[in-house]
Amino acid sequence: MAFEQAAASARHFDSPEMRKLVAADSQMSLLELAKLLENSSFAGIRIFDSSGKSLMEAWGMEAGSLRSTVQAHQHVFPKPGKQHYNWLTNEDEDFVQVLIPLLDSMRVTEVYFEGVYRLDVGTRYARKHQARNATLTSFVAVILILILLYPVLLGLTRRSESLSQSLLDSNLELLQSLGSAIAKRDADTDTHNYRVTLYSVRLAETMNLNRDSIESLIVGAFLHDVGKIGVPDQILLKPGRLTADEFEIMKRHVVFGGEIIQDSTWLKRARDVVLFHHEKFDGSGYPHGIYGKDIPLSARLFAVVDVFDALMSKRPYKESLLIDDALKILQDGAGGHFDPEVVGIFITVAATLYGEIGQSDRGYLQKTLKVIIKKYF
């Protein structure tokens, strides 16, 4: 409706008088154009030649910044018999910019007339009412579509969640099966894996590690010795002290472990613990001899609980230590073997953790680990 009103007003200027006015191209022509503007519904008028070059223009007294708004708008010059429209808003007023070609007797564009038509109150209301109705209609349509699609989307979401949970369960089962199989190669039971994993999580929580770090720590703790699958039995199961050459072969288990997990997107999060848990704070560890804070925090943390559990466990070749003796060894190793900050924090919770974890049977350890896995995965 607004477009039709603007076009109708513009066509009043398609007259011999307008062509004569344009042809004069003088100051008097500008005055005449201004008079025409006063008697129209336009806030501004511009005239262009057939090539699009501006010839003259006139603006009402209240045009204000409207002129700049119009000039900033790019033109599309229409073909003969066509019109071009734009909605414009300036200082909370609505306008229609209409551009029509004025044709000569041969139906060839002689000039272009541009009028900036100010919408009256009724038209503005109708436009806003129409826009509101269109918006409401679109909103209702979207709601109806969502209602129709909701069961489908819900089903897809639930299926995706179910598949994700199944994949996670499979990965966790693989983690525990693989870790337990390796642990039983050099021990009668896999409880060491459960204990060091639980110790690691409790210490990480005490140290306020973030969720992602704890998830990776759980996987790394359970798989920390996965590389021992590549160590020959005569070395891995040797009851006595290893020779220098045998120890060099034993040290390679961390590298083997890194190679085993590197091709699994899910298992390779264990990398920091698997590769670096035998590094020492003073740089005397293996396989890379890195030191201090260059050793990943999860590996520095795990090194403490791994040694603690070994000291507190009975083996065929040794008896378990008293907790005070084990903690004394950790303290003596702070700054050398271990990160002193991690040792200091662990000592404050060691007795409590040992009471909960260190003296528990396999069933309790499995149950507790399941609770932790449910919490973090």
Task: Please render the helix and strand layout as text.
Elements: H1 2-11, H2 16-24, H3 27-38, E1 42-49, E2 54-59, H4 66-71, E3 84-90, E4 93-103, E5 109-118, H5 121-183, H6 191-206, H7 211-222, H8 233-236, H9 244-251, H10 253-261, H11 271-276, H12 297-312, H13 323-333, H14 340-358, H15 362-376
Antiparallel strand pairs: 1-2, 1-5, 3-4, 4-5
Helix pairs in contact: 6-7, 6-12, 6-14, 6-15, 12-13, 12-14, 13-14
Task: Summarize the structure in short.
With 377 residues, this protein is an alpha+beta fold. It is 57% helix and 11% strand. The two termini are 61 Å apart.
Description:
The chain has 15 helices and five strands. The longest helix is centred in the middle third of the chain and has 63 residues, at 121-183. A five-stranded antiparallel sheet has the order 2-1-5-4-3. A hairpin with a 5-residue loop joins strand 4 (93-103) and strand 5. The protein has two domains: 1-119, PAS domain (Beta-Lactamase); 161-376, Hypothetical protein af1432. It starts with a helix and ends with a helix. By secondary structure, it is of the alpha+beta class. It has helices at residues 2-11, 16-24, 27-38, 66-71, 121-183, 191-206, 211-222, 233-236, 244-251, 253-261, 271-276, 297-312, 323-333, 340-358, 362-376; strands at residues 42-49, 54-59, 84-90, 93-103, 109-118.
